[in-house]
């Protein structure tokens, strides 16, 4: 069982708070919308991931157990 | 008016002869009495799903004809296993510009499609059927309305069937978009629920393409063994091809899966030496170069050799005098205008791609434009709630590969001002989303 970042592309407004808070796993495309790394989030990064999820103003980002 | 139907057919049509679906197309077969005489009785719709019918579809090996090529029986199983009575939706949105097969079936063989919908309803234990047809396809709408009325004049419907007119947009026929609209929302894709679990009225919902259901009707009636007498072992049966472009007789053709593309082109009056490329699978599809087209067969298995598949069955032959770069740019611009405007990378990514491919076509793009386009194809893939960005990325990559030399010429400043426009694009319909 692994934790992965997931995004709802309809809800996301692309202001990129997540990429600022979690650059290890979130980059931005040429139009400023977040591209997520699909690798599982290890324990070392979990805190950062949670912070990015909590900071998303439109709840577009979540951590999913897969 | 009451009169009786004569469901008296004891022998299946000759197994290996085609057409099957299109045999109902001649005018004389269009009414219910002649349809029944030919197509026989329907399986009974009960409260419970009917595994026997799902099994018949499974053994036939039928795959969806709307573009996904997903196993129809597996879809039925998922819906039948859901909680609550199911709903069957006949997906006749057919937003693909060059596709005409679903409208043809709805206009010329409506009873076959309705039989398929009722057979599917029996299979999954549904208690209603919704026939969803493009709002601007007035002939198809009239035909289905007439056919539903005709049925009621003979006998009460086993379960209610209603006709709805769907907003005209490329993405309206996407399953989640159709369900969202049927539930009172906009005809735009969603990512909240999967229709087979929670679809129309939050009930398990089977959405099947018009052609798929026409095949279901015949499989249930004549059996999977009969169905498999044409086609290939992995892709049995026949399939409808909407063929246009550089052929003398553009039309919808019924061919066995695995048929030679070259032969189909020749039989419709096309000449391979006059064709520079063939688009297969519609605007989510891929280009075959003339050399590949010469040896390709019309099955997903064979087309996979060229990174291609049948998609919704659209085949367009590009004549030598047309320009592949211009045609591809036109399609990408149309795809960009087809966005539902919900996902950032789709809205902005497709717009950037359309602008740049347009500039390439006019001989006005920077020299590194092809590289830039490849980067963007990668960036938009998998980034939408629906597969529009993925389809556009695939079409873009295939265009850059199939017309590599032409793209190079355009990047050095050439343009093809005189080239005729071949690929059909609908006039932008300013339809609402509801
Ligand atoms: S913080 Fe939320 S809304 Fe902003 S870019 Fe990231 S996912 Fe999108
Ligand atoms: S990917 Fe594009 S077409 Fe699909 S839902 Fe998002 S915005 Fe709409």
Helix content of chain B: 40-55%
- CA radius of gyration of chain A is 11 Å
CA-atom Rg of chain B in angstroms: 22 Å
What's the helix-strand series of chain B?
A: HHHEHHEHEHEHHEEEHEEHEHEHHHHH
The portion of residues forming beta strands of chain A comes to 15-25%
Any idea how many domains of chain B?
A: 3
| Main beta-sheet annotation of chain A | 2 strands, antiparallel
Q: List low-confidence stretches of chain B.
A: none
CATH topology of the largest domain in chain B: Rossmann fold
Can you characterise this structure?
The complex is a heterodimer of chains A (66) and B (434). By secondary structure, chain A is α+β, with helices and mostly antiparallel strands. Chain A has one domain: Alpha-Beta Plaits, CATH 3.30.70.20. Chain A contains two helices and four strands, in the order βαββαβ. In chain A, the strands form two sheets. Chain A has a two-stranded antiparallel sheet. Chain A has a two-stranded antiparallel sheet with strand order 2-3. Chain A is globular, with a radius of gyration of 11 Å. The model of chain A has no long low-confidence stretch (mean pLDDT 94). Chain B is α/β, with parallel strands linked by helices. Chain B has three domains: 21-227, 3-Layer(aba) Sandwich (Rossmann fold), CATH 3.40.50.11540; 238-319, Ubiquitin-like (UB roll) (Roll); 324-411, de novo design (two linked rop proteins), CATH 1.20.1440.230. Chain B has helices spanning 32-39, 51-60, 72-80, 101-108, 110-124, 138-154, 175-182, 210-222, 224-227, 261-267, 290-295, 300-303, 324-337, 344-361, 369-380, 388-402, 404-411, and strands at 86-92, 126-134, 161-166, 205-209, 238-245, 251-256, 259-260, 275-280, 286-289, 297-298, 314-319. In chain B, strands 6-5-11-8-9 form a five-stranded mixed beta sheet. In chain B, α4 crosses α5 (110-124). Classes of the chains: A alpha+beta (66), B alpha/beta (434). Chain A binds chain B through residues 8-10, 12-14, 29-33, 35, and chain B through 190-191, 342-346, 348-349, 352, 375-376, 379-380, 383-385. The complex binds iron/sulfur cluster (2 copies). One iron/sulfur cluster (SF4) binds next to α14 and α16 of chain B. One iron/sulfur cluster (SF4) binds next to α1 of chain A.
């Amino acid at each position: 069982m692994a934790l992965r970042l997931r995004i709802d592309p309809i809800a996301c407004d692309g202001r990129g708070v997540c990429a600022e808070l979690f650059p290890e796993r979130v980059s931005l495309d040429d139009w400023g919308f977040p591209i997520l790394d699909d690798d599982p989030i290890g324990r070392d990064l979990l805190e950062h991931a949670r912070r990015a999820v909590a900071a998303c103003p439109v709840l577009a980002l979540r951590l999913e157990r897969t | 008016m009451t009169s009786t139907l004569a469901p008296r057919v004891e022998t299946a049509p000759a197994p290996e002869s085609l057409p099957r679906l299109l045999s109902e197309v001649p005018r004389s077969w269009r009414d219910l009495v002649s349809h029944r005489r030919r197509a026989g009785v329907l399986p009974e719709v009960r409260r419970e799903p009917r595994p026997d019918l799902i099994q018949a579809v499974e053994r036939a090996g039928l795959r969806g004809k709307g573009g996904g090529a997903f196993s129809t029986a597996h879809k039925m199983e998922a819906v039948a296993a859901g909680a609550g009575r199911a709903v069957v939706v006949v997906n006749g949105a057919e937003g693909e510009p060059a596709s005409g097969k679903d409208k043809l079936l709805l206009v010329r063989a409506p009873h076959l499609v309705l039989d398929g919908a009722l057979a599917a309803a029996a299979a999954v234990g549904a208690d209603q059927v919704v026939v969803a047809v493009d709002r601007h396809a007035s002939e198809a709408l009239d035909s289905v309305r007439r056919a539903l009325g005709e049925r009621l004049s003979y006998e009460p419907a086993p379960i209610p069937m209603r006709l709805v007119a769907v907003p005209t947009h490329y993405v309206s026929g996407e399953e989640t978009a159709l369900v969202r609209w049927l539930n009172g929302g906009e005809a735009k894709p969603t990512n909240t629920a999967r229709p087979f679990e929670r679809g129309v009225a939050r009930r398990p919902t089977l959405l099947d393409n018009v052609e798929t259901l026409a095949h279901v009707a015949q499989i249930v009636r004549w059996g999977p063994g009969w169905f498999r007498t044409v086609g290939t072992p992995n892709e049995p049966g026949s399939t409808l091809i909407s063929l246009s472009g550089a052929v003398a007789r553009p039309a919808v053709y019924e061919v066995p899966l695995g048929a030679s593309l070259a032969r189909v082109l020749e039989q419709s009056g096309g000449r391979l030496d006059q064709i520079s490329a063939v688009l297969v699978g519609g605007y989510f599809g891929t280009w075959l170069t003339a050399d590949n087209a010469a040896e390709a067969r019309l099955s997903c298995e064979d087309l996979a050799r060229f990174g291609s598949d049948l998609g919704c069955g659209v085949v367009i032959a590009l004549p030598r005098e047309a320009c592949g770069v211009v045609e591809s740019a036109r399609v990408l611009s149309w795809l960009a205008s087809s966005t539902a405007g919900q996902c950032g990378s789709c809205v902005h990514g497709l717009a950037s791609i359309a602008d740049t491919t347009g500039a390439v076509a006019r001989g006005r793009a920077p020299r590194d434009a092809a590289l830039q386009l490849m980067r963007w194809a990668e960036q938009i893939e998998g980034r939408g709630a629906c597969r529009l960005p993925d389809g556009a990325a695939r079409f873009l990559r295939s265009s850059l590969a199939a017309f590599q030399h032409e793209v190079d010429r355009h990047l050095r400043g050439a343009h093809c001002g005189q080239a005729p426009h071949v690929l059909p694009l609908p006039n932008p319909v300013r339809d609402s989303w509801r």
